[in-house]
Amino acid sequence: MNYRGWLLIFFMFVILYSAALHTTATFNDPDSFYHARITELMIERGGIITKFPWLPFTAFSQSFIDHHLLYHAFLVPFIALWGPLWGMKAAAACAFVAVIAAFILLLSRIVDARRDIRRRFLVLIFTASLFLNGVFTTRMNLEKIPALSLLWLLGGTYALVSGKRVLTFFFSFFFVWLHGAWPLMPMLSILYLIADQCSRKALGLCAWSVAGACAGLIINPYFPDNIFFYLVQIFHVAIVTYGDLYEIGAEWYPANAQIISWGTGAVITAASATAVFMFKAAFTSGTALSAKRTTIERFFFAATLVFFFLALKSSRHGEYFVPFATLFGGIMATPFLESLSLKHAKELWKTCFLKRRSTAILVSGIALLYGIFAPILIASNLMAFREDGIPVEKHRYISAWMRQNIPRGSMVFNDQWGYFPSVWFWGGDNRFIAGLDPTFFYSLDPNLFWNYEALRKGTVQSGAARAIQRLFGAEAIIVSKENSALRAVLDRDSDATLVYEDGSGSIFTVSILR
Question: Domain ranges in the chain?
Fold first, then answer.
């Protein structure tokens, strides 16, 4: 079978793999509800959303910007055709397939795979190794921005390494409109500048990237409000991350051992590529390969290292570390593997393995077991992950009760900020206390935020309902089923009346309003 046949089989696998992960009526991230609902509003209103009155106690009420504007524009045809659930899933699957295609094109361009069929197969093998990283396939198949964000970053990387200034400007400009991770593009251009030893060409590319990002901020439907928003989003949420003060999104916490193990394939690839990079002269001896490190090699070494440390700080950056580590591995290994003759391979085998037979058997056995069982285990874990997701209808009936029994625009005290997207998705006529990220509440009014924290955790043992009404003007209180502390407080509170309950939580009204 020729290369095209193997490539076709591989993409059939990618499509089926992604489709299998999207067969359940669940979302694995509460943000998916937000993206689905705001896209529906764009369709209904025929334009972008410029006001966000549903979270009046957060910074969104002061200066809301849709920092996923292009992503929501991308979702429009999918949701218009198939509705919010299956539209989101179809969009996620398409974005994942596009990421795999972009990865192949970028690696093929860097290693110049057009001139040698062996290089094409090596590119395909390195691309397939991405599926040995559960953190990558998990993040890429969430019904949210990661896949499209990575796709855009891969495009920007192609522009950089190809020396295309206008294309670099293009990707930097519209990255600002696509996702809050837009600073990554200027960051990569700076790394390329350093890798190319501050050459005039690299300096020009860096200037075009920074200019593109600045232009994207200014030539923007949300300017100048977006400046304040990104101050909170980038500095407070991404850099400082107040996880030691209050509960934040799980993806912003440092990568733990489980996250690192899920990215084992990329960690092994990056470590091996680093060894070749650092001791290139030793690896290239006896071959016609140059021992000199190239700009591309230095650039991807630096990018891989930066993304690794970013992933250690916040696990969400694993979605960037895995592909860049794999690209780095492909760049370092492809020329060596291509030039590896049978004679050279035998010499390496004698030197590295036959003289240490027990080590060779152990290493080979581990590699074989990993290669066979890792994809199976990762796939089964991913399917379990999908099954354990958030049912799309989780808060449908709570929201239906509120629409029928609470005046439109009423203030609702929600005890979990992560529940806001799904409750808002089903009952968007009401206003809520916290949502999307607690930092946007904290940054606007820290004192009120700490009052909210005390109330929602059940720390206030008496007069809680009255305090909720006085501080927030809430007419209803949603208590999640997990929050037994607040539930116990309200059950004893004569000013709170239980009016609705189901498997997802309960609703209390504040009696003193009547």
Answer: 396-513
Is the separation of the CB atoms in 191 and 299 below 8 Å?
Answer: yes
Q: Any idea which residue has 């200014």 for tokens? A: 218
State the residue for tokens 């003193």: 512
Q: Which two tokens stand for residue 477?
A: 């209180």
Q: Is the pLDDT of residue 369 over 50?
A: yes
Question: How many alpha carbons fall within 13 Å on the CB side of residue 484?
Answer: 0
Alpha carbon of 1 to those of 4, 8, 9, 14: distances in Å?
Answer: 8, 11, 11, 19
Whether the bond between 224 and the residue before it is cis, its omega within 30 degrees of 0, is: yes
From CA 122, how far away is CA 340, in angstroms rounded?
A: 13
| CA nearest neighbour of 185 among 157, 211, 163 | 157
Q: What are phi and psi of 191, to 5 degrees?
A: -60, -40
Q: How many CB atoms lie within 10 A of CB 400?
A: 13
Contact call for residues 430 and 405 (beta carbons, < 8 A): no
CB atoms within 10 A of CB 293: 15
Closest CA to 111 of 98, 127, 123: 123
* Rounded-to-integer distance, Cα 170 and Cα 212, Å: 7
Looking at residue 58, the DSSP 8-state letter turns out to be S
Give residue 247's Cα distance to chain centre.
Answer: 19
Give the Å distances, CA to CA, from 327 to 14, 90, 198: 18, 27, 23
Which residue pairs, CB below 8 angstroms and at least 24 apart, start in 128-132?
A: 128/10, 129/265, 129/269, 129/326, 129/329, 130/100, 130/103, 130/265, 130/322, 130/323, 130/326, 131/17, 131/375, 131/378, 132/264, 132/265, 132/266, 132/370, 132/374, 132/375, 132/378
Mean pLDDT of 391-418: 88
Could you give the CA distance from residue 170 to residue 183 in angstroms, rounded to a whole number? 14
Say if residue 173 is exposed, middle or buried (CB neighbours under 10 Å; 0-12, 13-18, 19+). buried
Neighbours of 94 (CB within 10 A): 16
pLDDT digit string (tens) for 427-460? Answer: 768 899 988 888 888 888 889 999 999 999 888 8
Beta bridge partners of 500: 507
Cβ pair 333, 272 in contact under 8 A: yes
pTM higher than 0.70: yes
| Helix/strand/coil percent split, the chain, to 5 | 70, 5, 25
Please name which of 259, 269, 276, 300 lies closest in space to residue 109, comparing C-alpha atoms: 300
Q: How many CB atoms lie within 10 A of CB 355?
A: 10
pLDDT value at residue 279: 75
Q: What confidence category does residue 360 fall into, taking pLDDT thresholds of 50, 70 and 90?
A: low
Task: Give the helix/strand (H/E) hosting 477.
Answer: strand 476-480
Q: Give the total residue count for the chain.
A: 514
